[in-house]
TrEMBL record:
<dbReference type="InterPro" id="IPR046348">
    <property type="entry name" value="SIS_dom_sf"/>
</dbReference>
<dbReference type="InterPro" id="IPR036388">
    <property type="entry name" value="WH-like_DNA-bd_sf"/>
</dbReference>
<protein>
    <submittedName>
        <fullName>SIS domain protein</fullName>
    </submittedName>
</protein>
<dbReference type="InterPro" id="IPR000281">
    <property type="entry name" value="HTH_RpiR"/>
</dbReference>
<feature type="domain" description="HTH rpiR-type">
    <location>
        <begin position="1"/>
        <end position="73"/>
    </location>
</feature>
<keyword id="KW-0804">Transcription</keyword>
<dbReference type="GO" id="GO:0003700">
    <property type="term" value="F:DNA-binding transcription factor activity"/>
</dbReference>
<keyword id="KW-0238">DNA-binding</keyword>
<dbReference type="Pfam" id="PF01380">
    <property type="entry name" value="SIS"/>
</dbReference>
<dbReference type="GO" id="GO:0097367">
    <property type="term" value="F:carbohydrate derivative binding"/>
</dbReference>
<dbReference type="Pfam" id="PF01418">
    <property type="entry name" value="HTH_6"/>
</dbReference>
<feature type="domain" description="SIS">
    <location>
        <begin position="107"/>
        <end position="246"/>
    </location>
</feature>
<dbReference type="InterPro" id="IPR035472">
    <property type="entry name" value="RpiR-like_SIS"/>
</dbReference>
<dbReference type="InterPro" id="IPR001347">
    <property type="entry name" value="SIS_dom"/>
</dbReference>
<dbReference type="InterPro" id="IPR009057">
    <property type="entry name" value="Homeodomain-like_sf"/>
</dbReference>
<dbReference type="GO" id="GO:1901135">
    <property type="term" value="P:carbohydrate derivative metabolic process"/>
</dbReference>
<dbReference type="InterPro" id="IPR047640">
    <property type="entry name" value="RpiR-like"/>
</dbReference>
Amino acid sequence: MLFLDYQPDLNETDIEVYKAIISEVNAVASMSIRELAEKSHTSTASVLRFCKKFRCTGFSEFKIYLSAYLESLKEEKEVKTLDFESELLNFLARTQDKFFEDKFDEAVHLLMEKELIIFIGVGSSNVVAEYGSLYFSSLFNMAIRIEDPSNYPINYLSTELAKKMCIVALSVSGETTEIIQYLNHLNLSESSVIGITSSSNSTLSKLADISITYNISLEKINEADITTQIPAMYIIEKLAKTVRNRMETQ
């Protein structure tokens, strides 16, 4: 709680003091003990007892610890923001590498040969898949999204149709179960697969004919994957625009 690494035993009066502090946490440093007592509808003695439960001899010491705690939170937030921006800048720099450009060029040539593009993804990647299908359809060719890959296995696909298709599989980790199972149904077909993922060592990268990886750190809050999808969207947009430009110059 606050700058403590444990939950102190607070009574009802302490809770009132705590609520008053939280409601104006950034202003507490400039408050007097009497002002906090009035704001919390308690007494100065109650505020002092509260401070002692936070291992402080008095209100002045409590304010010092609280200010240091708030500053540490601010610094942590700034570091995370810088890390996020640095990762995106590093990704953009890697798009100029020969290895990335070669893989990208292979994907462009493959897409130019196809008549139907199918996008698949799960979770936030499903949203990107929908965006990709709309973007591709607007620029150069018919594209659709499979909303629920687990319910659309390709068991009966003619060789002629399969050869005209390209599946663009999106998965940040490259290990999404539904995507892997869907692609396994293509083992005996003639369909081509482009994988867009963060990991070059993932199952998706191994199953795809062409894998374009962006190497961004995975980020989770509890069990929710909140890894940025900006690199995947960048790749999709650049692929579509490049294919469109090359087809126009043919």
